[in-house]
Every structure is written in C-alpha cells, then in structure tokens.
Write a structure and sequence with these properties.
The complex is a heterodimer of chains A (277) and B (258).
Chain A lengths: L1 E2 L23 E10 L2 E11 L4 E5 L6 H9 L6 E6 L2 E2 L5 H8 L2 E4 L11 H5 L1 H5 L5 H14 L16 H13 L5 E5 L7 H18 L2 E6 L2 H7 L2 E6 L2 E7 L9 H8 L10 E2 L1
Parallel strand pairs in A: 4-9, 4-10, 7-8, 8-9
Antiparallel strand pairs in A: 1-12, 2-3, 2-5, 5-6, 10-11
Chain B lengths: L1 H32 L6 H13 L2 H23 L8 H39 L2 H7 L4 H38 L5 H10 L3 H27 L4 H32 L2
Classes of the chains: A alpha/beta (277), B mainly alpha (258).
Chain lengths: 277, 258
C-alpha cells in the first residue's frame, strides 16, 4: 500500500512573461496534463525552451520527467494542454505532419535503444536511410564520419550493438541522435549507468555536438554533475509541475528548499519520498 | 452468486475487448500495407526467414506425416479390403488438411514465437519508441513486412509440404506395402481436384496471416521486461495455434460443406 507524503507547501512555478520583441520559444508547453489511472503525473505543466538553449529538467524518480519528454516527442498522448514546436501545435497535427516535425529532432534514449539487429553504421544513419535521403554506400561513409565526431574509430561501424561496451553504445546512440543534423535534441538520462569519467566524456560530447549543430537541447537527468556540465538553465519538476527554473550557475544556491534538498541529496526536507509499506 | 456473475461478466468483457484490440491492430496494419513507404529489405528478410528457414521443419513434418498416413490407412482399410484407397486418402488428407494445419502449427512455433520475442524485446528496450523518433512508423517497418511475408510464404511452404507428404506416402506404399508405383501415382491423381489443393493454399494464406498477426500483436503490446517478453512469446504461439484450428474448421465449412 502506498503511503503518500504529507502535503508540503509548494512554491509557484516562476513563469516570467516574455518581452514583446523576444522570438517565440522553440518549444512551448502549456497546461500539459497526463494521468495514468488515478495518478496525476503531469499537472498543467508550463515550460518554454528558447532556440539554441540547453535546458536540463531535474527531478526525482516518478516526478514526471520521462512522461514530459515522451509527450513532447509524441510517444505519449497527453490528456490536456498544448505543445508548440516552432509555434505550431504538434498535438493537432496528423501523423504524417508529426513525422515531418520529428525528422528535425534527435533523441538519445537512456539505454541507447540501438537496433540490435542492425550494425552500428546502419543504426547511425537509420533516419537518413529510412527517408531515402542517402544510398547505403554513402550512408556507411557518412556513419564513419559521424562516429569520428563522437570519438569512435571506423572499425566500430561494422560491429553490432551487442559487441559494444556501455560507453560505446552511448556514443553510437549520440551519433544516431545527431546524424540528421536536428534542430532539437532530447537527452534522457544521458549518463545513467556510466562510470564518472565516461559520464564526463559523454557530457562533453553532448555539449560539443549541440554547439556545433546550433541545436536546442532538452535533457532530463538526476545526475547533478551532468546537469551542471550540459545545462544553460535548469528546471526542477516536482509532482508534475515545474517548481523552479534558473541558470545552471545558480543550481547550488537556488533559494528554493525543494531544489536545495534535491541538489544536496538530503533525506530531510520538504520532499518526502513515497514509500511502500 | 453475484461475485460469480461479476467474474463471468469481467471475463466476457475482457475477451470481447481483446478481440476488438486485435481487430483494430490488424486493420491498422492492413491500412499501412497499402500506403508507402514500403520497407522491401525487411519484407525480403522476413520472406527468407519464414519461407526458406522454415523449410526443413515443415518438410520433415510433411514427409513423416505422409508416411504414417499411408501406413495407418493401409492397416485400417485392410479390415474391409479397401487398401486401394490408400493413395487417394494420403493425397486428399495432405492437400486439404494435414499440409496446411501441420505447416501452420510448425510455423506458429518457429516464426510466431520469434516475431513476438523480437518485437517484444524492441518494445521493452525503447527500440520501437526510437523508430518513432526517427520518423519511421513502427507498423510499416515492423508489422507490415511480417504480415505480408507470412501470408505469401505459408502457401509456398504448404505446396512443398503437400508434395513431400504425398512422396512420403508413395515411399511407404511402394517400398513397404507392395503397391505398384505406376498404379499408386494413378490413384493419387485419379480423385485429386484443383479445389483440394486450392482450399489448402487458402488455408495456408490465412494461417500465415494469423501466425504473423499474433506474433506482432503480442510482441508489440508486451510490457515489463524479460517476463513480459516471455509471456508475449507464449501467448503468440498458443493464440496462433488455437486460431489455426478454429479457422481450419471455418474454411473447411466454406469450401466443402454443401
């Protein structure tokens, strides 16, 4: 049986109005709500992400981070709300229109999600091959070039994902995410399961790739070291709402007891973890 | 009493809901099968997997079934001096029933399980979500090639099974039971009609579709890691086998009940 935490007062999500001359955000989320049965996972969540900006959303397990990213990517249908990408509401689009929008996005999954029946080079250029933008010979050459950008040698191209270490799989997944030169790249727990050194290497590759592409980056993580390395700004999600947002430099002194407890990993504080008894 | 009725009601709703979900899944897949893009490499790979790599198991099953059928019918028919009907019984049984049903069940075990396991693993490791983020429709990429390949390849397998089954009966008939080879072949052709073979091939196409549908459906909907994939695999084989037996009766009724 689940014992809910005692209700704690939550600060309102700071959502300053944009000045009139500010360009529209790359991603705008308004009133996003998602329930799974009786559980409210996203609670009228609002979020703006400017173009060429790297936002990291932090939050505890079950706080709604993954559901948020899946809603934006079109993998989960929200119950209510709007998601605009480049000013267009993607929730009102047909499947074909949505696929066209997704073609300008890249995604690095937590566990890589590499296609284990395909060699590395086909994984990397999968999106390009699927859209017939490139022939198989050219795709192989292109994959080798992209792999070199994430620090992998050409011989890796012929291997299958099962033959790679966890760090190499993450690099290949990153190569796949950037292969189509996306405008927006999503990172789901990019350093989970990696040792600290490999985590730092992946983070620096992410920063490098995002800057080189001039892309907008949206990451979710609970690895604070990783968040500080890859974020321009950090937002915290708690009980399905964004409760704090600020520059990554302020994350150690956020002035918000929820964020402070989470960042410092303190057991006691306003966040009470739900436990099963 | 009310509890029992409630349980029966829940079971009935669950059953009807499953039928509806499977029908929607099949309709979605069929809708995608006529709209581009088509993934020809996946289709050819599935054809090879279903058609070519299933040949040994289907061939062995068919040839031994034909041999057993000849032997059993000979010993049975000898009781009322009807041994001459052995060749006819073998060819009609193989083409109408045993060829498609046995090939269908063998392919359900081999291919249906493999499809459910492969697609199920892709589901629980986010590979299907990855397809979506790469602007690739998972139905078009994973389900359609398997459904079309299953529907087209099983009739070819059954054609081979029919020939090998008849050959098995011929071998036993001529080498063990003492039939004249020319007379045996003449009796084989004498009562065989096109409808016998066609009904078997229609059954095979339907069974191929059902095996692929169950493999894809259970794999696509699997949840919960290794245990979920295992359950999907079992469900795919069991449901495909049951559906083969049910549709075997329905198609037989359509072709032969007059």
């Amino acid at each position: 049986m689940s014992a809910p935490a005692p209700a704690a007062p939550m600060p309102a999500a700071p959502m300053p109005a944009a000045p009139a001359d500010t360009p529209p955000p790359k991603i705008r989320v308004r009133g996003l709500t998602k329930r799974f049965g009786p559980k409210l996972v996203l609670d009228a969540l609002d979020l703006d992400l400017p173009a060429r900006h790297s936002l990291v959303v932090i939050g505890g397990s079950g706080s709604g981070k993954s559901v948020l990213i899946k809603c934006i990517l079109g993998l989960i249908e929200p119950d209510e709300g709007a998601i605009e990408i480049d000013g267009r509401n993607v929730l009102a689009m047909s499947r074909e229109e949505r696929e066209a929008v997704n073609a300008h996005m890249g995604m690095l999954f937590q566990a890589g999600a590499l296609f284990d029946s395909l060699p590395v080079w086909e994984n990397v250029c999968f999106g390009l091959l699927a859209k017939n933008e490139i022939g198989r010979c050219a795709a192989r050459e292109k994959a080798v070039e992209i792999l070199s950008r994430v620090g992998l040698t050409p011989d890796v191209a012929a291997l299958y994902p099962a033959e790679l270490s966890g760090g190499m799989q993450k690099r290949v997944a990153l190569a796949r995410a950037i292969a189509a030169q996306p405008d927006i790249i999503f990172f789901d727990e990019p350093t989970t399961g990696l040792d600290p050194i490999m985590g730092a290497i992946i983070d620096s590759l992410i920063v490098d790739c995002v800057r080189r592409l001039g892309a907008t980056a949206f990451s979710i993580t609970h690895d604070m070291a990783s968040a500080k390395r890859i974020a321009d700004s950090v937002a915290m999600i708690f009980k399905g709402k964004i409760i704090w947002r600020g520059p990554s430099a302020e994350i150690d002194h956020p002035g918000n007891p929820y964020v402070e407890q989470f960042v410092k990993g303190q057991k006691d504080g306003p966040i009470q973890m739900e436990v099963r008894r | 009493m009310l509890d029992m009725l409630a349980a029966v009601g829940r079971g009935t709703f669950g059953f009807l809901s499953t039928i509806g979900t499977v029908a929607l899944f099949a309709a979605t897949a069929l809708g995608h099968s006529v709209r581009p893009p088509f993934y020809w490499r996946n289709f050819i790979r599935q054809c090879i997997d279903i058609g070519y790599f299933s040949l040994p198991v289907v061939a062995l099953t068919a040839i031994f079934s034909g041999m057993v059928l000849a032997l059993q019918s000979y010993t049975g028919f000898a009781r009322f001096s009807a041994e001459g009907a052995v060749a006819t019984v073998v060819v009609l049984s193989m083409t109408r029933e045993l060829g498609p049903v046995l090939a269908g069940l063998m392919v359900a075990g081999r291919i249906g399980a493999a499809m459910a396991a492969e697609i199920g693993t892709m589901r629980v490791t986010d590979q299907i979500d990855a397809l979506t983020t790469l602007s690739t429709n998972p139905f078009k990429y994973l389900v359609v090639p398997r459904l079309v390949a299953g529907t087209l390849m099983l009739p070819l397998l059954v054609l081979v099974a029919d020939i090998l089954g008849v050959m098995g009966g011929f071998l036993v008939g001529t080498a063990k039971l003492g039939f004249n080879s020319g007379a045996y072949m003449a009796r084989t052709w004498e009562y065989l009609e096109a409808e016998d073979v066609v009904s078997g091939l229609v059954k095979a196409a339907v069974f191929g579709f059902l095996v692929a549908l169950m493999g894809c459906y259970h794999g696509y909907r699997s949840r919960g890691g290794a245990q979920g994939v295992g359950a999907a695999t079992t469900n795919a084989v069991v449901s495909a086998s049951i559906l083969i037996l049910i549709f075997n009766y329905i198609i037989t009724e359509l072709f032969f009940a007059r």
